[in-house]
Amino acid sequence: MQHIVTYPTSLAQWQALVNEATVGAHIRLNEDLESYLVFLLMRFTNQPQIAESVLAIDFLSAFTDKALDKAVQLQDVGDKCLLLAGLFPGRAERKHVRISYFVHLGQSAYSSLSTVSRQSLATLFNDLSDAFVPLTDVLLTARSLNHQSCLTPLQAEELYHDTRSNAAKNALPAGCVVNADLKQRTSKN
């Protein structure tokens, strides 16, 4: 039987979950990335409407709408993509896209954001873009801390093939990774 552990604040609870997931995923996040992830989880705890967004339109609107703040829109797209790819990968299937769609769109949003932000934030958003797959892996690992993957075998194979996600690799049934690696090696020859 699992023990329920509670912490005095929601911040402490999210911090503990992220720490446990990074250990489980064998990933070391720098302090800025870990803090960003914890505060992202806190910010979206009571916002179930993230699944209703059409992220590609939001991403394009950031470049075309003059009335809206480009940086805010890009950050919103990157954040939602990270949450959908890592915590709610089933949404990809419902939207008839691969999970890697959220990964690539989120990376692009954070990368674009790094070019329009002041220097101190530009570095953070560039790091978020570069570490998008490991951050997704942390969230996927957090979802599977009860020893059940939230990825179907097909989702795991596609995500591993598209992004080389370690969480996806670990969710694959035995033998599938060899086939995915072999397929990529033979296609390069």
Summarize the structure.
The protein is an all-alpha fold and 189 residues long. Helices cover 70% and strands 0% of the residues. It has one domain (10-148).
Specify the overall morphology: globular
Q: How many domain regions? A: 1
Mean model confidence by pLDDT: 86
Structural class: mainly alpha
Report how far apart the termini are: 51 Å
Please provide a written account of the structure.
With 189 residues, this protein is mainly alpha-helical. It has one domain. The protein contains eleven helices and no strands. Helix 3 packs antiparallel against helix 4 and helix 4 packs antiparallel against helix 6 (99-116). Residues 185-189 have low confidence and may be disordered.
Spell out the blueprint of helices and strands:
Layout: H1 10-25, H2 31-43, H3 55-64, H4 70-86, H5 90-94, H6 99-116, H7 119-130, H8 132-143, H9 153-163, H10 166-171, H11 176-188
Helix pairs in contact: 1-2, 1-8, 3-4, 4-6, 4-8, 6-7
Task: Jot down its keywords.
189 residues; mainly alpha; 11 helices; globular
